[in-house]
Amino acid sequence: MAICLTINADSSILSNGANEMKMRQKGMAKIKRTIFILIAVVMTVSALIVAGCSSVENPPDQVTVQLKWVHSIQFGGMYTADKKGFYTDENIAVTFNTGGPDIDGTQVCYL
User: Fold this and answer.
1) pTM value surpassing 0.90
2) Domain boundaries, position 78
3) Terminal alpha carbon distance of the chain
4) Are residue 66 and residue 103 in the same domain, yes or no?
5) Total tally of structural domains belonging to the chain
């Protein structure tokens, strides 16, 4: 059985296996460093994009809901959504107009 020895530039003697292991470790360190730098760059660019995409506040869309009758429990879902701010979250300003026996909802919608 023969053992091969190599002499490094710094005059240290390493066996072939130890030399190969040291070379692999250096290679892995370079790969890890490259991956770390790449992740840091991607995160920085992402943060800059998100910061630059701050939305301009648009005025809310005006929506009028013509009820078929006076305010009643049957429209409770719309009232609840309004009170909980669901329309505001979607940038919608809702107005509820009451109806009644003298209001024709189809004519009001087209005016």
Assistant:
1) no
2) 61-110
3) 101
4) yes
5) 2
* Cβ-Cβ contacts under 8 Å for 61 (sequence gap 6 or more): 91, 92, 93
Q: Is the dihedral of CA 88, 94, 61, 68 positive or negative?
A: positive
* 71 in the same domain as 94: yes
pLDDT in tens, 87-105: 999 999 999 888 877 776 6
Consecutive H or E run containing 22: helix 16-52
CB atoms within 10 A of CB 98: 13
Contact call for residues 91 and 61 (beta carbons, < 8 A) = yes
CA angle at residue 61 from 104 to 49, to 5 degrees?
160
| Cα 18 from chain centre | 48
Q: Are residues 45 and 68 in the same domain?
A: no
